[in-house]
Amino acid sequence: MYDASQQQSALRGRYPLILTLDTHGVPHRWISWQHACYYYAKDQVAWAMGEHAFTVYGGMNRLTGQRSSITASSIIAIKGKAMALKTFSQVPPLNNRELFHRDRQICAYCADMFPIARLTRDHVIPFSRGGKDTWMNSVTACRACNERKGNCTPERAGMELVYLPYVPNRAEYLILTNRRILADQMEFLTQHVPAQSRLRRKSA
């Protein structure tokens, strides 16, 4: 028989991340199976949808002889303050992995697709010209194009952008940050992705 620590070690990485929503159905964040069990145990799951994600078994009840268990769905809506909307309204943090995924690993200048190791973050308006490190001023660029552009604006370098930068919304960011997203979770999140998103065009 596994003890609790052995069971947790065995289950780590085996179960998918669970998508949490507020009670209005707005996507919020990914949580681990342990965190999902906490919400179920505390009766904080308002409603659930999607496929069966996992069942975790606990100890035996001395009075009934029955073993306790928690069965979780892949998408759950959480009651109360746990789903504070201030987190949802924040602009997703900018980092290279999510930037490259937003742009589908396509260079904004030559339009070719590259492996991540050959990509860089380019600031459309360079820092020296007042540019900021923001989603709206950042695009994916291959190393050759980034070196060619140098410390210039695209216009000054004679390099036209083949697509425009944009800020991913929360649903799109959740898609970008989960490598093991389930089909039903993807279907739900895609409904919240704006029409201009490159992720939507990719899945079309």
Q: What labels would you give this structure?
A:
204 residues; alpha+beta; 4-stranded mixed β-sheet; two-stranded antiparallel sheet; 23% strand; elongated
Question: In this structure, how is the largest beta sheet organized?
Answer: 4 strands, mixed
Low-pLDDT regions:
none
What would you call the structural class?
A: alpha+beta
Q: Give the topology string: H per helix, E per strand.
A: HEEHEEHHEEHHHHH
The order of strands across the largest sheet is 2-1-4-3
Rg value: 22 Å
The amount of helix comes to 25-40%
State the helix count. 9
Describe it.
This protein is an alpha+beta fold. It is built from 9 helices and 6 strands, in the order αββαββααββααααα. The protein has helices at residues 4-11, 33-41, 85-89, 96-102, 143-149, 154-157, 170-177, 183-190, 198-203; strands at 18-21, 27-31, 45-60, 67-78, 119-123, 138-142. A 4-stranded mixed sheet has the order 2-1-4-3, sandwiched between helices. A two-stranded antiparallel sheet has the order 5-6. A hairpin with a 5-residue loop joins β1 and β2 (27-31). The chain is elongated and about 80 Å long. The mean pLDDT is 86.
